[in-house]
Design a protein that fits this description.
Low-confidence stretches: 1-5
CATH topology: Growth Hormone, Chain: A
Shape: globular
Number of strands: 0
Oligomer: single chain
Number of helices: 16
Radius of gyration: 20 Å
Strand content: under 5%
CATH class: Mainly Alpha
Helix content: over 70%
Length: 414
Amino acid sequence: MKDTPEFHWKNFINLAVIVVALGYFVDIFDLTLFAMLRTQSLISLGIPTEEQVEKGILLLNSQMAGMLVGGIFWGILGDKKGRIKVLFGSILLYSLANLANAFVHNIQSYALLRFISGVGLAGELGAGVTLVSEILPTSHRGLGTALVATIGVLGAVFGGFVVEFIPWRYCYVIGGSLGFLLLFLRFKIQESSLFNKSREGQSCDVQWGKFSSLFTSFERLKKFILCIFMGIPIWYVAGLLMAFSPELSKELGVNGVVTSSRSIAISYLGLAFGDMFCGFVSQKIKKRLGAVLIFSLATIFFIILLFSTTPNKSNNYFYSLCFFIGLGAGFWAMFVTIAAEQFGTNIRATVATSVPNFVRGAVIPMTLSFKFLKADFGIIKSMAMVGIVVFLLNIIATLLLQETFHKDLNYFES
């Protein structure tokens, strides 16, 4: 693409964007490690095959519960103390927790450490997207956050490669170590000037990082809930379809072994391309919500193809659909950008951090619903039922939210 007066690579690629993107890369690597290591780690801990889905759901939900808690905590801290402090604190916490994960010997300690990891992992993306959104020109915010997400989700691809060759305990050591290396890069980036200037010239009436303010206005609460609904299909894909792809592929009669690590890595490779394409589609049509709707419909189409898989299809066919489902679900950066742009500077980090973690936390009701329905309807139908609800909420939210492509972010919530 040639440079034009409306498009300049230098307008959205800078040190802060690169460092935030690398932080998200480590975040996603650590976030997806458990789903990739679920089977081999549970076998190592002596969990029988018939209990692995149940214990896997327990551990996954422990991590997601931690992200719900962390999403609120880090979001409030980001608005009160600054975006950079969250980027430091969150990565330190989840790096320590992931290192400790390498030494667990029972389900109880494993679940506790996944919870602590979740609290730490919750702060990375929201603070990063808020920072990038506030330092980039209005017309290039979507491209900057798309670049962050594209590089970031490749962390899962890297994780899929690592877990193929390295024992599960050492994988957690690698994840924690990468976090500590990243801390050194963080010293080179500065706080958002928009945040600093807003704090310097603030009125005494402006309250920063007040999570409860989302519930004191119907309009704010509606936007907050709609933002969550818009993003949940992404974690329906990652937290349900891909995490339990071995069981799903067996039910579909797929030939060959399907592993969750490969399914997750391949779907996240699709997500990487999807996030960047979604950014360019948004830039082309000058609409963020339109781009999300296009990609949501594409995801639905490929999921229908997956559930329609006839017996004796190869595992490569299954993996190819994982890629295309990931490609369609590649609107994560766009969804978080839209959420950040819906709210004023004084609660922007609170929203941008809590919304994606509430989306991740939605894995809890999704997996519990799947578990409840599975006994009567089987794996395929129960996953499909959950998916229908998820995508209906997504489409309704996308149609009701306010477009933010040209929105000026220099304002406060009263």
